[in-house]
Amino acid sequence: MIPANFAYHRPSTIEEAVGLLASLGEEARALAGGFSLIPMMKLRLAAPEALVDLSRIAALKGVREEGPEIVVGAMTTQHQLMSDPIIAAKVPLIPETSAVIADPQIRYRGTLGGNVANGDPGNDMPAVMMTLDATYVLAGPNGTRSVKARGFYEGAYFTAAEPGEILTEIRIPTPAPGAGYAYEKLKRKVGDYATAAAAVQLTMKASTVETIAIGLTNVSETPLLAQDAMTILAGSRLEPEVVDRAVAAAEAITNPASDGRGPAEYRTAMAGIMLRRALARAASRAQG
Amino acid sequence: MNDMTPTREEREAKLQGMGCKRKRVEDVRFTQGRGQYVDDLKLPGMLFGDFVRSTYAHARIKKIDASAALALPGVKAVLTAADLKPLNLHYMPTLAGDVQAVLADEKVLFQGQEVAFVIAEDRYVAADAAELVEVEYEELPPLVDPFQAMAEDAPLLREDIKDKTEGAHGPRKHYNHIFDWQIGDKTGTDAAFQGADVTIKEMLSYHRTHPSPLETCQCVASMDKIRGELTLWGTFQAPHVIRTVASMLAGIPEHKVHVIAPDIGGGFGNKVGAYPGYICSVVASIVLGVPVKWVEDRMENLSTTSFARDYHMTTELAATKDGKITAMRVHVLADHGAFDACADPSKWPAGFMNICTGSYDIPVAHLAVDGVYTNKAPGGVAYRCSFRVTEAVYAIERAIEILAQKLGMDSAELRMKNFIKAEQFPYQSALGWEYDSGDYHTAMRKALDTVGYDALRAEQTAKRDAFRRGETREIMGIGISFFTEIVGAGPTRNCDILGIGMFDSAEIRIHPTGGVIARMGTKSQGQGHETTYAQIIATELGIPADDIMIEEGNTDTAPYGLGTYGSRSTPVAGAATAVAARKIKAKAQMIAAHMLEVHHDDVEFDIDGFRVKGLPEKRKSMKEIVWAAYNQPPPNMEPGLEAVSYYDPPNMTYPFGAYLCVMDIDVDTGVYKVRRFYALDDCGTRINPMIIEGQVHGGLTEAFAVAMGQEIRYDEQGNVMGASFMDFFLPTAVETPVWETDHTVTPSPHHPIGAKGVGESPHVGGVPCFSNAVNDAFAFLGSTHIQMPHDHWRIWKAARALGA
Ligand SMILES: Cc1cc2nc3c(=O)[nH]c(=O)nc-3n(C[C@H](O)[C@H](O)[C@H](O)COP(=O)(O)OP(=O)(O)OC[C@H]3O[C@@H](n4cnc5c(N)ncnc54)[C@H](O)[C@@H]3O)c2cc1C
């Protein structure tokens, strides 16, 4: 429970941070809230030689609207997401998710950027960002580039981010007014990662699903976008047999680990139940 | 009398004696972060020890290379079994008559076993160095399933005792067998089963779990080589016993060993025994001549020091067709892990498992327990219970439900029909105990009436119908448990630890102006002894509790005692406290009589002083009497006012209670909600109702945790799964149900103040209550027993299997 030795740096600009990571090399890691990285270091599952603490970089914090997008700085904490008026009004799926992440102490420090950059299938925000079709902006030694959340996750702890790159902001297309949303998460207790969880974002017109996106958390090596289920449900009136088919399609893409939360078959079944419940709640919230 | 004269009630209230909801005096420092725990101790030159632990469950050690670790700056030494062998300290005796490796000798027998002890300048260097010690292993086949332990081709675990055919408790049947303990009338029991109208039989597994106190096990050893004295600070529930053991092992005379248990952050049985960390710290301090600290981390605590339970109990009941129980038969397969390190009184290899006839008048019974070795951590401690009582109560309280189901009878009614009746006390049980007192019918009736039992059953019937009609996916369970505990070990005639009888002690010293210091042989780990012992003295002697300081845990100043576990503090040291106070009171009476110039038979005790019988205004307050004891004692009387008592209890005490739980279960997810939990406890005389309530809340929360998911799991390779609070279920305030508490009072007839002990009752009674609720919910679908722990996925699986 004691980490190996490491050096500590605390830059105040993005450029400085990128420069530090480049000069320190592959064994250096960015530090955000520290609530995933530091436990890993204490267990010696990670032993970075240097940490570059992003907490003093003002440019990485805050929420703003930019044209058709909501832009969230990577260092914005879960607590800030739960109390931000723009987020509450425009993307309520986010605070609904933040509220079921960890506990208040962790939410005061844990950041959106850390949550999505971490690459742990247990994190809740990645599936939500895929559902919202967010884009991640990465700054590296060769400048900045954008990667879609839907294409970011490659395996457990493997993402499209290159070593030395910093996630600076998350850009979310502003959902249409009146959209329905829900995040349903089953967990064993407060502070636990999901046994299974489902995110749903949809728009309805005349009781018919117009657009829909579905994300699943912690039922595979990576967060999942339930593409087939989305196709089945789009244009439907959420008739029971259509929902059954969509749930079966979503369950089919899961491949959960068996662990203390339960055997794989249970976790797959729970992904289905969470999806059913999220669909029902999202539909009940949608206007139109 | 004028208006300023306090009334009797006011005088009584001022004492804050027995029955008063006195606030816990220790909380002043605990709530301000001013407790003094072992890890707060910092001594000049102190070093820090850390273990290299086995990565395998079963392997031969080919080679240990510590050269890289020793080369790291700040590392002082690395101890292995080879260093301990010449001192004959590579094995240590366990409380159960076995030996346990201090550092692995040639073989490792469980994952996490201590292999080497690294001593360094600070804990950071020690952790780095531990990683640098290279251990070469040759893997051996692991034995994880206790049911395979005595198979013909089972791997041999304990090479050190493979030729020993006699264990500490009789013959061994197999090289992985520890003991076969039998009690009761086998022939009579078998005969009763043969002729029975109805019988039930079920294998009830009580899974492996862990007491998991918030503060882990830790110590600081400091050898003063000039004086030849060893001081050992540690998280010890039984500091005096630890001193005796330390003296014996280190060969230092007992008076030159100073054991000090400072504030302790919870014990629950985890801190009774001796661990390799203590021995290694002592050896390291002796070798290096400076203090050495050892502190377990959370994962070490959960995976190495003292698991609890792991009992697999094949339980049978026989009954007449109208529900009178005629016999009980139980066979237990006990998984003790790699060494038998159970913390039971020496003559009781399965603790008090023979309390398994419970609260019922069962004429004949037989119990057999087979202990076996497996490649798991040693332990088998009494996690918030008196020596295997939790297991015993689980067996009988599940069996009663299963029998009721088979008889088609309401289980509350079945209990009422078979309870020991109030007039049968003292009651001799078929398995050898003498229950001191009880009124089970009254307690059960009060519980059923308070919760509105009949209405709950009616609601359940309606819900079941709605479920069958497909209108809901929620089912409802009503769990009942009625437990009888056996606590306060114990009479020295049948209870000892390492040959030392299980008495306990109190020494009370009253100073001239009325301030009192009292010391006991027990050791609080959060129970509130500093508050409650003072209340006993306050009532007995008429001195305000606030003027009484209680001190425990320093073996140099406190009288010898056996420590705090098995709910023994109030039954044994609490009794000693009352007896010592009464010795002082007798002397005070003589002094008062002398001061009042009457014969001592003519004065009587009156709340906070003595008065002349029939002349209440002629009185002396305790304050005056105490002063006189030092000033002008009667002729021929020694001055001073103090007493000591070593109390050997004539019997155990038998607290009991009736618990009821209402639970709603979502069969689609296995998620449950405890809608209501009612706990009626009878612990005899109630010293501090607020502390009792706190103990009940804490015990129920732990019972809830254990029943609903708290588990130490192993995979097939013997790897410990989930030994951190991420997986090990420790409920937060969010998960914890709301507790309703209630009580009846049936004093113990043999205890000086009639008190019985309560700290463990809620755990003992709570676990079967939750499990019965889950099982009751599924009973209508044809299920007889679902094994614990009842976490979401297991409930879901059970629902699936039943076609729900
Ligand atoms: C008890 C407990 C319970 C938890 N429960 C949940 C839960 O239910 N759901 C959940 O989603 N999470 C949970 N977490 C994790 C928590 O939400 C973390 O805060 C989050 O996963 C990581 O965010 P962070 O800001 O703490 O990042 P850090 O831990 O500091 O970093 C995480 C990783 O991301 C990298 N990183 C961080 N920021 C950047 C950046 N801007 N650019 C590039 N790389 C970066 C780091 O190098 C590191 O590899 C839990 C944590 C704990 C301790």
Automatic annotation (TrEMBL), chain A:
InterPro entries: CO_DH_flav_C, CO_DH_flav_C_dom_sf, Diverse_Substr_Oxidored, FAD-bd_PCMH, FAD-bd_PCMH-like_sf, FAD-bd_PCMH_sub1, FAD-bd_PCMH_sub2, Mopterin_DH_FAD-bd
Protein name, UniProt field: Carbon-monoxide dehydrogenase medium subunit
A Gene Ontology molecular function term of the record: oxidoreductase activity
Membrane-traversing stretches: none
UniProt domain FAD-binding PCMH-type: residue ranges: 1-177
PROSITE patterns recorded: FAD_PCMH
Residue ranges that the Swiss-Prot or TrEMBL entry lists as coiled coil: none
Keyword tags: FAD, Flavoprotein, Oxidoreductase
